[in-house]
Design a protein that fits this description.
This protein is of the alpha+beta class. It folds into five domains: 6-176, tt1808, chain A (Alpha-Beta Complex), CATH 3.90.1570.30; 186-334; 371-408 and 417-512 and 521-705, Rossmann fold (3-Layer(aba) Sandwich); 731-885, no CATH class; 935-1064, no CATH class. The chain has 43 helices and 32 strands. A nine-stranded mixed β-sheet has the order 11-10-9-12-13-15-14-16-17, with helices on both faces. Helix 22 links the parallel strand 10 and strand 11. The longest helix has 39 residues, at 1012-1050.
Length: 1066
């Protein structure tokens, strides 16, 4: 929960003025530690004391000036910018709220219940960074978001904790925004430590693994790699434990130093690893030493391991890396959060190394976890999902047991023993229920969701302890429930063996206590294929849930299923399709893997209990998602958080959704939140869920696609769809994807390679074709790519014979052979190939490339369609359309229009970053309106006009760039120079100077500044060309508007509907 990284916090604590802080602490304790005052506060209502509380704490202790005193910086009842609601208090900087204060009476034990209200106030105060909540006894301090906070018990606050409270709340620190600075520095420090520690951690693993292979050839590589990882897990636990005083401090250093002394001073040598093995044994069984005792932590991590106990490890490497890692302070520097990121990084590397061991090409394995749709889930997401699943069940249970905090706050004196006993029994009943709740992540990875659930449950038990203490007037004693939670509440499955071991380690590190055995997690965290129970398909990873967790299913299943299941495309799970087809009702031939995790999640869930996933939202409007949509509408969907055009996961191409649902008949209403077009962080997430939530009717979800727009837009979409047929149903339309070569470096030629092959044999021209990538396709224009394709096709059945490259094009074959050797056989090994490795794979629509066609890129940040009349071939990142009935230009103009851009943004697919994903299945949804031949002819004339205008502008721009390049011999053009016509002459010349200087430096030539006469000459030429460019751009804009107007008329839009489209696409 901590806001700050310990080493950063300690730096600021050392800078405190001790005398000033000591005096403040005296003032603080004289009031808040006075037993009589404490009792009076407990007996006061919220309204009675909140004004005085602000004075007692913020004015008298922390030095604020309260309204109405002149120059005040503390006020009460501050009204929201919008609406009439008011926060109880606010700290002001100038006229703006820097912090909002929300106060409750001491009968509000759980300050977490105040978060939503308090952050609602914060989000209504622009520039507000801090949220302070208090029940007069406890105080919470938040910065930016509700994910982490510092909590202070004011009635029992030690001097050490007061120092931190002073850093957070004193006027001399908070008004200067110091707490936010400490947090920002903490995040930077955490990032730096994470990078450095992981570099050292990975170096340890890789070097030890290499050495172990050489010294232990009797074992296979994969086994040795797994043992290397286990060895690292052991060391990591020891480093963590010794710095947190679970073990004697510096125990690794002591072992290394003793070993060095015995070797160097006393000529007694034995392998360093033998000494570590002995220590591992102590960790397993315990040891009574002369200086220190070692507790038997066990848990399975240090249990005897036949291979680890018998391998040899190089002394020098082991010495070097253990000493290096022991330099980190795992108490102040390395948080559990940092370790979570280390573990996730580690899994990425583990997959890659294992793939290399098994002989998978490195290009394929490099980003395997990303390829398999595995991304580390941010804490604000795991917290939200756990709060709204586990948290929701807990709130329902407390309501059922009628646990009211106010009853536990009342003075004990005069209350009947039977009343106290009943109240105490309610807490015991709640604790008993808590220890029976079962929570599962079916794709647990490194354990992010399980750790969040663990943290939540520990907090709930502390809440029980607190109410129990208040009921009987005792000091609060925290129950040691961590092991019980791990044994009874937390379950996980992952297909990756290393993920399972790392998930266990992460849970151990979070719960380890001095002198307490680690819980064996073998019965709770298991390795297996969550989706497949049949060994025929999954081998030894086949996983039967009922057999693996019999005690859970004896009670009807899990209470909560949570997680971030992997998104894997259908073609990568083809081998399992027969199993999925016969096992899952949501199966379609093109379903991605996450679809099955939804069905499995509900299958293993108890009736009336909760599922919470973050996953791809692709099922909202895809054909393969229909069965899943239908399945989900039979459940009770509580919340949908749609990140349609917002990015949570760096590098993820698919957009995300959080879905919270219960396994019961659907309610009529669902909470829906859609996030803005921007990257999301914890603060933005908090703001959006406060302001952007709305209730939608379940009928929204019973349409063909899940559309969440307002009724006006939905009606407009329906109207567009009624005006004709979609492209899929339109006669004479064919949509195809570009070619997959299997190895682009072999089959795609640049200008130099192309010219060499033609020079060797002009006959090669017969099979060398001009080629475009998606990035070369602009709106109404195609860039010169300078690329060609070796079209060594595999023929078309009954139409065209496959090319015999070796016989008919020997110089091409010679070239491909050299590429095959250079790539160590990648051309020959590739899966996408024809009859012979020198042939491209089968392509039934090969002849379509030689036709006039509409072309576009698969993924694009811009709305670009163009017409190709030069028989260009396309790569697989592009699509094309040919039409035998309707003019291609007519279709081109429709696709490039604002109306169809608007239509696609509502029914199509977008990436997490807001780019268009223009697959065949999406483009087929476009509606072709019913039109006459005359309408089509007139429309095509306009399209041809804009093509000509666009070409003229591109030619003018390119000629200017070519002149610049040749005149000044520039190595590379900057973006500003390429877009020269969008800048004034002053900006242009500054950029030209910068690029010329860079070129001169790279070429080691002299740089000469333009003379005044040369600059004057360039100014005249620049301004002339810019004016021409602006005139052409104005003509293009005018024609574009005319085309849009024609499109609106073809679809019969009203003025009101046109305004909706124009505003949405502005």
């Amino acid at each position: 929960m901590s806001l700050f990284q310990n080493s950063v916090l300690n730096k600021y604590l050392k800078g405190l003025e001790s005398e000033k802080v000591n005096q403040a602490y005296e003032r603080f304790t004289s009031h808040f530690h006075n037993p009589t005052i404490q009792e009076n506060i407990r007996n006061s209502k919220e309204e009675q004391y909140q004004g005085e509380f602000l004075i007692d704490l913020f004015v008298k202790v922390f030095g604020y000036i309260k309204n109405p005193t002149p120059d005040f910086n503390l006020t009460t009842e501050l009204k929201n910018i919008k609406g009439s609601k008011k926060t109880d208090g606010a700290i002001l900087k100038g006229e703006k709220a820097l912090a909002v204060i929300e106060l409750k009476g001491t009968n509000t034990t759980d300050l977490g219940k105040v978060e939503t209200q308090a952050f609602g106030y914060k989000n209504n105060q622009p520039g507000c960074n801090y949220v302070i909540t208090s029940n007069f006894e406890k105080l919470r301090f938040y910065i930016d978001n509700a994910v982490d906070f510092e909590e202070f018990n004011l009635f029992q606050l030690s001097k050490e904790r007061f120092d931190i409270l002073w850093l957070c709340l004193s006027s001399e620190y908070l008004l200067k925004d110091i707490p936010k600075k400490i947090k920002d520095e903490s995040l930077t420090q955490e990032e730096n430590v994470t990078k450095k520690l992981y570099k050292d951690y990975a170096s340890f693993r890789n070097e030890i693994f290499d050495a172990i292979q050489k010294e232990n050839p009797e074992y296979d590589k994969l086994t040795l790699f797994k043992k290397t990882q286990k060895l690292l897990d052991r060391f990591l636990f020891i480093f963590f434990a010794e710095d947190r005083l679970l073990l004697p401090p510096n125990s690794i250093r002591s072992i290394v130093n003793q070993w060095t002394d015995l070797r160097d001073k006393y000529d007694e040598y034995f392998p360093l690893y033998d000494r570590f093995k002995k220590y591992f044994g102590y960790m397993n069984t315990g040891h009574k030493g002369q200086q220190h005792d070692i507790f038997a932590y066990n848990g399975g991590l240090f249990a005897p391991d036949e291979i680890l106990d018998n391998i040899k490890i190089n002394d020098d490497l082991l010495y070097k890396h253990t000493v290096n890692l022991s330099n980190y302070d795992f108490e102040s520097e390395v948080s559990v959060n940092i370790l979570g990121h280390i573990f996730e990084h580690s899994l990425n590397d583990i997959d890659e190394i294992q793939a290399e061991i098994q002989g998978v090409a490195s290009e394929q394995s490099k980003t395997k976890r990303k390829k398999d749709g595995v991304f580390y889930t941010p804490k604000y997401i795991t917290k939200y999902i756990v709060d709204n699943t586990v948290g929701k069940l807990c709130e329902e249970k407390k309501t059922e047991l009628y646990i009211q905090e106010v009853e536990y706050e009342k003075e004990r004196k005069g209350r009947q023993k039977s009343t106290l006993k009943k109240l105490s029994q309610k807490l015991e009943d709640y604790r008993k229920w808590l220890l029976q709740i079962t929570i599962c992540d079916p794709a647990c990875g490194s354990g992010a969701f399980l750790n969040q659930a663990l943290e939540f449950l520990i907090s709930e038990h502390q809440y029980i302890d607190e109410l129990q203490a208040k009921l009987f007037g005792d000091a609060m004693v925290l129950s040691e429930v961590e092991n019980a939670i791990l044994e009874n509440n937390i379950y996980g499955v992952d297909i990756n063996e290393e993920s399972v071991e790392i998930a266990k380690l992460s849970l151990w590190l979070r719960t380890a206590q001095k002198g307490r055995k680690l819980t064996s997690l073998n019965n709770n965290i298991k390795c297996g294929n969550s989706l497949i129970a049949d060994p025929t398909f999954a081998g030894d990873k086949a996983f039967n849930w009922q057999n693996e967790f019999p005690e859970v299913f004896a009670n009807g299943g899990f209470d909560v299923v949570i997680g971030n299941p992997p998104y894997v495309q259908h073609r990568k799970i083809f081998e399992y399709s027969n199993y999925f087809k016969t096992t899952y009702s949501v199966y379609t031939g093109t379903s991605d893997l996450s679809v099955y995790f939804f069905e499995k999640g509900f299958e293993i869930l108890k009736s009336n209990k909760l599922l919470g996933y973050i996953n791809t939202n692709k099922f909202f409007n895809t054909e393969y998602g229909k069965k899943l949509r239908d399945f989900l509408t039979t459940q009770n969907i509580d919340k949908i958080l749609n990140f349609e055009q917002s990015s949570i996961f760096k590098d993820a191409l698919v957009s995300s959704v959080i879905l919270i649902a219960s396994k019961e008949s659907p309610d009529n209403d669902t909470t829906y939140i859609e996030f803005n077009k921007e990257s999301i962080d914890a603060e933005k997430f908090q703001r959006e869920i406060t302001f952007r939530n709305r209730i939608i009717n379940i009928d929204y979800l019973k349409n063909n696609s899940w559309l969440f727009e307002n009724p006006i837009i939905q009606n407009l979409i329906t109207k567009i769809q009624s005006k004709g047929s979609n492209l899929k149903e339109t006669k004479g339309i064919k949509i195809n994807r570009g070619l997959t070569t299997g190895y682009d470096d072999g089959f795609i030629l640049d200008k130099e390679k192309y010219e060499k092959l033609i020079l060797k044999d002009n006959k090669n021209n017969e099979i060398i074709k001009p080629l475009l990538k998606g990035k070369h396709i602009k709106r109404y224009f195609i860039e010169d790519s300078g690329l060609w394709l070796l079209n060594t096709h595999n023929g078309i059945k009954n139409i065209l014979e496959a090319i015999n490259v070796e016989k008919d094009y020997p110089t091409v074959y010679e070239y491909l052979l050299s590429k095959n050797i250079e790539s160590k056989g990648k051309l020959e090994k590739r899966s996408d190939k024809g009859n012979h490795w020198s042939n491209l794979r089968n392509c039934a629509f090969l002849d379509e490339f030689e036709k006039e066609k509409v072309i576009w890129g698969l993924i694009s940040g811009h709305w670009n369609f163009s017409l190709d009349t030069n028989n260009n071939y396309l790569t697989s990142a592009s699509y094309f359309l040919t039409s035998s009935e309707i003019p291609n230009r007519f279709i081109l103009g429709l696709l490039n229009s604002k109306l169809n851009k608007f239509y696609f943004e509502n029914v199509g697919e977008m990436t997490a970053g807001g780019a268009y994903v223009l697959k065949k299945v999406s483009v087929e949804k476009f509606i072709i309106p019913k039109t006459s031949e005359i309408q089509q002819t007139n429309f095509c004339k306009k399209v041809k006009q804009i093509e000509k205008q666009t070409s003229s502008l591109e030619t003018l721009q390119n000629n200017f760039i070519s002149l610049l390049s040749s005149k000044f011999s520039l190595n590379k053009m900057s973006n500003k120079l390429i877009q020269w016509n969008y800048y004034d002459f002053s900006t242009f010349t500054k950029e030209l100077d910068k690029v010329r200087k860079k070129t001169a430096k790279e070429n080691e030539t002299e740089y000469n500044k333009l003379s005044l006469s040369e600059e004057a000459e360039w100014m005249q030429y620049f301004n002339e060309q810019k004016q021409k460019a602006e005139e052409l751009k104005a003509e293009i804009d005018k024609t574009d508007k005319e085309i849009d107007q024609m499109v609106y008329e073809l679809y019969g839009l009203t003025e009101e509907e046109i305004n909706i489209v124009e505003e949405a696409t502005a």
